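input
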Amino acid sequence: MIKKKSKNLLILIFVILSVAFCSIIWKYINLNISNVTQAKGTITLQGHSTDSDTLRYIVFILLPLFVFILSFYLLKKTKTKSFIEIITLPKIQSIKGYDILFPAIILSSFIILQFCSLTLPIGPIDTFHDGELFSVTKNVILNGTFFLDTYTIHGFSDIFYPLIFWKLTGLETIGSGRLFFFFLNILIKFLCLILSYQLIKFSNVKNKTIFFIIFSLILLSFSDYQVPINFSLFSYRDIYIIFYLIFLTKLFTSEKISLITKFFLGSIPPFALIMHIDTGVFLFVLLISVLFYFVINKKFKIASHIILFTFLSFTLILLFFGFEELNNFIKNALTIILSMDYLHGTEYPEPFFSIGDNKNGMRATRGLLLQLSAGLFVTYNIISKKNTMSNGGKVFFIFLFFLSFIMYKNALGRSDSYHIRMSNDLPILINSFFILNLLILKIEKNLKSVSITKKKIAIFSLVLCSILFVKDIDFLKIQNYPNEVQKLLNLPNKHFIDENRYQFIDKYKKISIQDKCFQNFTDDLILLYLINKPSCTKFVASWLASPEHLQDEYIKSLKDSKPNYIVYNSVYFKVDGIEISDRLQKVNKFIQKNYKFFQKINTYDILIIRD
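output
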């Protein structure tokens, strides 16, 4: 026993030393800037390369994992699997479901009660986040096209989400657009229950229903009803990730894979790519790795079916949008992928050494450690001969950690506390699963005589949910919920905006009554929606046109549309405090040459075209 503990302690010391080494060399890992689009943002002004942060992250996570594997093999060789055993697809034994009927009903009831107790989003407009959705969607409606005349930040979701509820309610109001995101978030809650049910199948604990209840509550705590800004661990951006993971588990819980499972595994990544660009890219990388794994294990039938459904999905997308629209989306997506880190990026804080000096230092360090601990849990279960979970589960968690590893790129690109927190979703999920699995196995080992009946499980679920949800449930709000929803849907836009902006909109509409389009050269993105005119260029959000080739396109659009007026400056919001004129210097030069100051309407500077 003493020898075993000393070996474990030695492995732990090696890992800690490797983490310390990676922290020390972090700032010395530097690469040249590879800003091929010449986009401008905070990070380019600092002369920092986001590729450096990516490489630093890879070293920080993979080196300690390598040290752990090497020391484990050297010190515990008899308790480890061979390389062939690890890469070989184990025999998948069909895992039967377990009884969750009463806990699922209780959890679902509390989810619905919480949803109907919510304070609806009637707060002031967020000029940037509300604006990037409502103005983009309004531009699409006014132009009658999707990507031909509109450039999006995230993808089709920027258009589709507000549009669908506007069409369903018949009201193109801010309240209507915001409410749809509440429904997306409650969908996430129910998807978390399904994901929890699927993941618990991999565990070897006897009391899986207890595991399901506790783990479901952990996953439910990941999401919250925040509108318009949602930086929860799980937000509406993660719907496709959760949905995909649910079907991915099915590959490793049954010998027979249904055609429906293969369909969703092949079709979700293409649709995710259209809806939310970065999510789709991550899922495609995961899909390719899954296909590669099944091919090397000679499971050609499964791989070929999934590939077939992927191509079928792309065909359906092409038929829906048409070639020209899809071509414009691809150009949009490629530019976002290549330039967003430089448009909106910030340097990732140095682990440990930045704590106290950088406001995001603590969270940045914690994020790396959560990712590393998740990797250690997964790696240990892969190489160890211990049997705490099914063989299929061990393979699944390899892919889950791989997805977690690559998705942390979001935190490396925009390294503020909010984006770092959002990128901790999968690491926390992995850590929570393994810790809870070990705890329940330990308790079961020491309390073999305790019997758990359906009645006890129902009472346990009810008591636990009551304790955790009690602060969120308000029966008076539940009673008035339908009326509150109707009130939100019908709130006039004036309710959401301040008097200064309202007066500007009113005055600007009068002076620009002859203009057929509206050109906004500020980050006050809500303006187009409120003025209700299509954009003179496809760049509703001008800051996205910072890449040089897009600035050329912007100038061409201005030459073609010849807007009489341009809203040139607004005091409300500037992305990272950088003026649009600094981001788009070529466009600004063209505007200064062809436009002159007209008048200041409240806090807005208006330019007029020169004679």
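quick obs: The chain has 26 helices and three strands.
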